[in-house]
Amino acid sequence: MQISKYLVANTRDALWGLTVSTTGFEDITPKDAYPTKGHADGYYFDISKGRELNEYQLLYIAEGEGIFQSSHIPETIIRAGDIFLLFPGEWHTYHPTKGWKSYWIGFKGKNIDDRVKEKFLSPEKPIYHIGYSSDIIHLYEEAYKTAQEEAAYSQQTLAGIVNHIIGLMYSLERNIILNKNRNHVDMINQARLRIREALENDLTIQQIAEEMGVSYSNFRKLFKEFTGISPSLYQQDLKLQRAKELLSTTNLSIKEIAYRLNFESPDYFSSKFKIKTNLKPSEYRSKMKY
């Protein structure tokens, strides 16, 4: 059994950066023929021959098990809790082996192209192991409901749902990987709290590493792996956020703020502040007064 909805997007919708072409759900038993009938032209395919699409599709296996293969990936088992991404122009084939319940959504646009270009997403790694997620299922169901209603500007709502699914998928898998070592997670969380609490102290990243009982190089590597940025940049960004607060809520001079937040000098502080905000501290303060 499958339910699906196919949509049309106009040229104005495309300028939003992402449009949705199809969304649906299927519940396949081990005895059911696959693929199911009722798909629009260009979507139905022969399992043995596979197919290529002119869009992306994101499929989530809520229950069951199957096989996936693509130009970049040899035949691979996909299980409940896996979500996989199909890429335009990429040959692929897939099918359930023990039945499955799956959700899909098809889309295209500059937003997703840019993420692929920056290697956030890649046909070399199309499968994400995120486990069972009621949030993911709810988003797919919301997409189908929105598609069924097809209200004015529903493409913009659907684009938001796709972005939410992709962001959640990306985050869930990486957190599962990181959480395999609970000690590392606890250490980085503790370090982030320590940095936040000591913004106006002269606490260094090297001292924090010593407190955590690890070498600076190992601490820096783990911190960047978990947060995406180095601990020193994390500390600096928080200090610049604190500087904006002090500039807008106090009469402290720029020199006093620079030294209060332990920057090397007022000039160094001003330079980093402008890089971050495109404004000098004095310009930011003047702007916040109006």
Explain this structure.
- Strands 1, 2, 3, 4, 5, 6 and 7 form a seven-stranded antiparallel β-sheet that branches.
- The chain is elongated.
- The protein is built from eleven helices and seven strands.
- It has helices at residues 11-14, 110-117, 134-149, 154-178, 182-197, 205-212, 216-227, 231-249, 254-260, 266-277, 281-288, and strands at 2-6, 19-28, 56-70, 76-79, 82-86, 92-108, 127-129.
- Helix 5 crosses helix 6 and helix 9 packs across helix 10.
- By secondary structure, the protein is an alpha+beta fold.
- Helix content is 47%, strand content 20%.
Give the arrangement of secondary structure elements:
Blueprint: E1 2-6, H1 11-14, E2 19-28, E3 56-70, E4 76-79, E5 82-86, E6 92-108, H2 110-117, E7 127-129, H3 134-149, H4 154-178, H5 182-197, H6 205-212, H7 216-227, H8 231-249, H9 254-260, H10 266-277, H11 281-288
Antiparallel strand pairs: 1-2, 2-6, 3-4, 3-5, 3-6, 5-7
Helix pairs in contact: 3-4, 5-6, 9-10
List keywords for this structure.
about 45% helix; 11 helices; alpha+beta; about 20% strand; about 290 residues
Summarize the entry for a quick read:
The chain has helices at 11-14, 110-117, 134-149, 154-178, 182-197, 205-212, 216-227, 231-249, 254-260, 266-277, 281-288, and strands at 2-6, 19-28, 56-70, 76-79, 82-86, 92-108, 127-129. It is α+β, with helices and mostly antiparallel strands and 290 residues long. β3 and β4 (76-79) form a beta hairpin.
